[in-house]
Amino acid sequence: MKVGFVGFGRMGANMVTRLLRRGHEIVVYARRAETRSQVQAHGATAVDSLPGLAGRLTPPRVVWMMVPAGGPVDETIAGLTPHLAPGDILVDGGNSYYRDSIRRAEAARARGLHYVDAGTSGGIWGLEYGYCLMVGGPREAVEAIEPILKDLAPEDGYLHVGPSGAGHFVKMIHNGIEYGMLQAYAEGFALLHAAPFPLDLRAISRLWNHGSVVRSWLLELAERAFAADPGLQSIRGYVEDSGEGRWTVQEAIERNIPAPVITLSLLQRFRSREEEDFGDKVIAALRHEFGGHPVRPA
Question: What is the predicted pLDDT for the residue at 31?
C-alpha cells in the first residue's frame, strides 16, 4: 500500500522502516531538512508540507499520524483535511485521549473522511518484534488498512476492538496496567537492593524469567538494565507520566471502579520528582529500555 506518515520520532521512524521492509510505499511529512534526509536514507519519500503529503498519495488516501497527543494532533488534522477527499482515511497511532478521538471521528465523518484510532504498543522494540495494535473505528476503514496493520503487528498482534475511540480507550487502560506492573517491580527490586545480603539483581531478574509466575518481558528488560548499570547509579529516579495513567485514574473515578494499584502508582510518579529511591530508578530504567523514554543523569 501507499501510505502517508506524519511523525518521524522514536516510534514513527521504526514503523516506517518496518512497513518499507514489507514492500509498502511510504511518503513522510517532515518540516526539518535533516529529518527529510533521514527519511530518504530509510528509503521513504520526504515532503516538506502537509498539502505536499496529500498530493503525493493516491485516493483513497491513508495518512498515519504519530504525533504527541492533544494540540499537535488537531493541528495536523487541520492542516491535512482541506487537501483530503471523501473516503480518505486518517489514522491516529499516538496516545490520544479516547474522548478526543471520538470528537475527531465525528468531525471527520461530517467531511466524508474515516478516522481510525490505533493504540500502539511496542516502543523501540517494535521494529524487530512488531507492534501490538488496538484499533477503533468504522469496520470498512479498518479493513481497508488491514495490510498495514498486519505488517506492523506480529502474528495475532492487532485487533479491531470497537467503534471510534475504543482503540485509544483500550490503550489507555493498557498503559494504566503498565503503571501498576512497573510499580510492583520497582518496590520488589528496592527491597532486594536493601537486603542484608549481597544480591545480584541481574541474576535474579534472569532467574525469575525461568518458571516463575512473575516472569515477563519487563523482567528481561530489567536484566538488561542491571547488566549495563548494576546499581543504576548513572540515572536519577525521576519518573515522568505521559498522560494515560492520569486518564485511567479519572475514568476509574467517573465509573466508580476501584483502581487503587494504578492510582497509587501514578501518585508515586509524582512523589519521585521530589525525592527518589531505588525503586524510582528501576521504573526510570525500564521505561528507557522498552520505550526509549529519556532518563535524567544522576
Answer: 87
* Structure letter (DSSP) for residue 48: S
Exposed/middle/buried for residue 201 (C-beta within 10 Å: 0-12, 13-18, 19+): buried
The single residue of 171, 244, 281, 289 carrying the catalytic annotation is: 171
The widest CA-to-CA distance across the chain, in whole angstroms, is 67
Which of the residues 2, 178, 220, 223 is marked catalytic?
A: 178
User: Distance (Å, rounded) from C-alpha 9 to C-alpha 292?
Assistant: 11
Residue 7 has pLDDT above 90, yes or no: yes
Q: What is the pLDDT of residue 274?
A: 87
With beta carbons less than 8 A apart as the criterion, state whether 266 and 241 touch: yes
CB-CB contact of 101 with 164 (8 Å) = yes
Q: For 163, list phi and psi in degrees, rounded to 5.
A: -75, -175
Residue 178 is a catalytic residue: yes
Beta strands 114-121 and 132-136 are antiparallel
Predicted TM-score (pTM) of the model is 0.93
Active site residue 171: yes
Backbone angles phi, psi at 202, to 5 degrees: -65, -45
User: Could you report the per-residue pLDDT of 39-59, keeping only the tens digit for each?
Assistant: 999 899 999 999 999 999 999
DSSP 8-class letter at 297: B
Distance CA 186, CA 206 (A): 16
